[in-house]
Amino acid sequence: MTWLCGAAALVLALGWGLLRLKCGSRYAGLRKLPMEGLRLRGLGEPFLWMIERWKLGRYFPSAMFRIQRSLQRTYGTRYSAERTLLFMGEMISYSWLFLTAGSVLTVLSGETAGTVLGTFLAVMLPAALVSDLHKKVRLREQNISFELPELLNSIVLLVGAGETVQRAIIRCVDSRKGDTSHPLYKELHQMTAEWDSGYSFQQAFENFSKRCAVQEVSLFTTTVLLNYRRGGADFVLALRDLSRMLWEKRKAISRTRGEQASSKLVFPMVVIFLIVIVLVGTPAFMMLKM
């Protein structure tokens, strides 16, 4: 078994080296593409060539579509194919790394536990990366839906005070003092930049809705585009009706987050309960044996 693992480690290392020679500097331009969470870009470049050359994506069309869709919601549609390729390369890099490390560990220790552990991690970690990506997308959508009622209230107050919708949104963005850490204000900041670069009000709003890809934002965009030309009391009334609906949605999100937080506390409470039982019951059990 030891010599077999040694041969496997050698094959994996040689395979990576051959792929490295094949791809050369073909993917050097992707190194500077902004994307969070990628730690093995240099190691994964040979696997990018393998994915494209062997068209591995066609064997998992549903998974590839979900990954690309999640990346589009996070980073936008621009360079979505390149980011999907980088994400797939990262997954394969982790699998290759753990398989190689497990084989080497088995050779050094003489135990098969290294290969078993390496194979287990090579399967589970890519799945965890995909799950974490989808979780981040859901959290982003929740954060946008959670903040949108606050933004809408500010817009209603400013429009009611005589501001135009465009000026009201710009004032709301400026009030954050350039802070674009929140996904909603990040997209709003990009929308105001599009206005400055010559985009029409309607076109910039539609792009904003597509980038957010959230139902509540689509309702907000539709309401604004249908009513902003009329202005006056009708427009403010439409925004107030939408605000009430979005506040109900925010309450639902708050309840969901509260339930999730409560469920996360169950396991620690069970562990603490078991520890208390052991601490209290052990002396009593020892006294009974005496």
Automatic annotation (TrEMBL):
Keywords: Cell membrane, Membrane, Transmembrane, Transmembrane helix
UniProt subcellular location: Cell membrane
Transmembrane intervals: 85-107, 113-130, 265-288
Any one Gene Ontology cellular component term annotated for this protein: plasma membrane
Record membrane topology: Multi-pass membrane protein
Pfam short name (any one): T2SSF
Domain Type II secretion system protein GspF per the UniProt entry, residue ranges: 152-283
InterPro entries per the UniProt record, alphabetical: T2SS_GspF_dom
Domain of life the protein comes from: Bacteria
PANTHER family named among the record's database cross-references: INTEGRAL MEMBRANE PROTEIN-RELATED (PTHR35007), PILUS ASSEMBLE PROTEIN (PTHR35007:SF2)
Protein name, as recorded: Type II secretion protein F
Organism: Paenibacillus graminis
